[in-house]
Write a structure and sequence with these properties.
Helix content is 60%, strand content 16%. The chain is α+β, with helices and mostly antiparallel strands. The chain has a five-stranded antiparallel sheet, with helices on both faces. The longest helix is centred in the last third of the chain and has 43 residues.
């Protein structure tokens, strides 16, 4: 590879690192071009799946200030640079790896922190952001309903007491 090509590849990878909040590092040894294309299509617009030389990737990561990939850049490496939700990308990669045992999840990084394979799987097991937000909103709505009932109970009790006293006076 010519020096200009390497420089361009490093610059492209550096931009991918800078423009992504997280990444999932995989080993793709033994996957066909069609399988990699399928994975890219499954990732959609949530991530850019890039196959790159480890030395160029290490240089690009260093230039972008990413230090969380130490020890992950061995063997044939491809990285899913996340531009959407990390959980969604982790789910796609995990599900693809289940169906294609040649794809190995090595780990990655999220918000500058290193991720091991188990961390990526744990992220994939989380519900999507929308589901978690709706669950939280439901819990908050339930809490507000309970609070409203609690505030209204003394008023209702006072009304029932006043009604009972009125009925007692009418009876007497």
């Amino acid at each position: 590879m010519a020096n200009a090509e390497k420089t361009a590849a490093v610059e492209e990878l550096t931009e991918l690192f800078r423009n992504s909040s997280s990444a999932v590092v995989t080993e793709y040894r033994g996957l066909t071009v069609d399988e990699i294309t399928t994975l890219r299509r499954d990732l959609g617009e949530n991530a850019t799946y890039a196959v790159a030389k480890n030395t160029l990737t290490a240089i690009a990561a260093e230039k972008a200030g990413v230090t969380a990939l130490e020890g992950k850049l061995t063997g044939p490496t491809a990285i899913a640079f996340v531009s959407g939700e990390t959980v969604d990308v982790a789910k796609v990669v995990r599900d693809f790896a289940k169906g294609h045992d040649k794809l190995v999840i090595k780990g990655g990084y999220m918000d500058g922190q290193p991720l091991e394979e188990a961390d990526v799987i744990q992220l994939a097991d989380l519900e999507s952001r929308e589901v978690l937000l709706s669950q939280m909103a439901g819990a908050m709505k339930g809490s507000l309903s309970k609070a409203a009932a609690t505030f209204q109970a003394p008023i209702e009790k006072a009304v029932r007491l006043a009604e009972a006293l009125r009925e007692k006076q009418e009876a007497a």
